[in-house]
Amino acid sequence: MRKRVIAAILAGMLIVSAGGCGKGAVSSGNVVDNSDASESSLNVVAEDTETSVGQEKNADSKNSSIAGLNDTAGTGEDADTQNAGVTALSLMQQVNTGDEQIIDDNYRTWYEVFVYSFFDSDGDGIGDLKGLTEKLDYINDGDPSTDTDLGCNGIWLMPVMPSTTYHKYDVTDYLDIDPEYGTMEDFKNLIAACHERGINVIIDLVMNHTSSQHEWFKTAADYLKNRPEGAEPDASECPYVDYYNFSKEMQGGYSKLDGTDWYYEAQFWSEMPDLNLGSQAVRDEFDKIVDFWLDLGVDGFRLDAAKEYYSGSVDKNVEVLSWFNSMVKEKKEDAYIVAEVWTDQNTYAKYYESGIDSCFDFSFADSTGTIANVLRNGSASSYGKALVSLQDNLSQYSDSYIDAPFYTNHDMARSAGYYSGDDSEKQMKIAQAMNLMMSGSAFLYYGEELGMKGSGKDENKRAPMYWSEDATTDGMCKGPADMDSIKMKYGALDTQEADGNSIYQFIKQTIKLRNEYPEIARGTVKFEENISDDKVCVIKKTYGDSEILLVYNLAPESADVDLSGVTVGGKSGSDLEIGGVLLTDAKEAAFSDGTLTMPGYSVVIVK
């Protein structure tokens, strides 16, 4: 009878894991660099390396197993037979059973989408708004009873306005949709479909500069070219000469206006002239632009290059953001505003004086940020200290700030290349958990949930979403024209969906826990330094009257954590219980008599 019960449990696991039977994530111990060849289409080949899935037995027989499968005494079955078919997903699903508790506020899990490379609806190889609408159920299907979507409840659209480039950060018209992406009707349909699913949408708003092909700049340039020699420009004759920063002197970041003795500021590129945001006329234009997009139903704005509004002047940039924030919030009180201020934490913390909701948290991101450094250097405690330091730093400037943690974005190499060696896949998984479990509004760049690769030039970082290993599959995009051929390290979505040990399944479980526990996004952090060390980081999050404990094992070895002296929500010691787990492979966590036993590279929620 006992054997039949265990067999039934294992059979259920095989069904749940949907094809993860005895096979690990498609992976390789070697990172394959992007080639130098320039191709217009994506050459994606998953490396065919398998990893076996083992079930680590708990050495301490008194510890209770989360999966409930440790007690095999008297069954006559060996461990390998017992654990056949067990995956990280099947173990996580047995614990992560709580309902989501979504609060309709600006603490969300945002999915950054580059429409050009996401999903193509019309067969031209370029992603479009209809394609994104078609794939919304992948991001969030709006049904909390299903587990087939990622669970993100926000989308950040990289620029969708008309532009001369593939990346579309050089806007030619702020009040339209780029024809490559579709029509205004397509945009309206996308917003409606998102809102039906509980997804908020923010759009990239590029206020620092326009395209040189924008009518404002073209009109101003023509006016200057036709001025009599030595005559000064007159804004009453041509208002647009005040929209930009023209000068008779060559300065840093300025370009020559052909056919004249004038120069204009263009900090990023000669074809991206900087706007004069001190001009009331320019501010009036953006007042109208904000009206236009809010009327279409957008939920807020991502502000590009906010530290370059006035390059080198924090105070002037903060003033611009203060104006913008007040202007937007008068129109839509709950609009979400997040600014890109790519600099050190001490500097971007000051930008919260403007009253905006968020600044992207660059100090934790990228291959050189806090998260990657903690994992490379084996310094788990430094992660907890960094969280508290961040909290203290930002709170100096605002009591309503919402941190915006992210791990990678379109300007950074993708995280699949951050680590090497046997544990690289586990490190990549746990790094994403360290990001997504941070307080604030967390951001996930499309394809990071699959471990996509991409480094070097910008085009490589914006490669086509890896829906399938077959590049001819319907909806697959060709990617930017100058993108190199990229050999992917991990399997495509259609492979990872069926693999209970995949990166994709791990990220989904991470977002599930974020949605289940409001304390994760909204909680105040306390670092439990006395029970943390180089391997283990323990933090407590408090939100209102509720508390949870987040315990991170950031080392490859298993760890025992004594929680007998910790009080969480009025409970301590053996009264505590596990409320969620994140496992990077098929080894389970256990809790008994106040001691938490964790496998390497795992996270456990204790409550």
Percent of residues in beta strands = 5-15%
**Average predicted local confidence, pLDDT:** 89
Shape: globular
* End-to-end separation: 35 Å
Give unreliable regions as ranges: 1-82
Number of strands: 20
Structural class: alpha/beta
Radius of gyration: 26 Å
Instruction: Give the fraction of residues assigned to helices.
Output: 25-40%
Attribute tags:
14% strand, five-stranded antiparallel β-sheet, 27% helix, globular, 20 strands, alpha/beta, disordered N terminus, 607 residues
Describe this structure in words.
With 607 residues, the protein is α/β, with parallel strands linked by helices. It has helices spanning 2-16, 79-83, 88-95, 129-134, 136-139, 184-196, 215-225, 280-295, 314-331, 345-350, 370-377, 380-395, 424-436, 458-461, 493-496, 503-516, 518-522, and strands at residues 109-113, 154-157, 200-205, 246-247, 254-256, 263-265, 300-303, 336-339, 358-359, 442-445, 524-527, 536-543, 546-553, 559-562, 567-568, 571-572, 578-583, 590-592, 595-598, 602-606. The strands form five sheets. A seven-stranded parallel β-sheet has the order 9-8-7-3-2-1-10. The chain has a five-stranded antiparallel β-sheet with strand order 11-12-13-20-17.
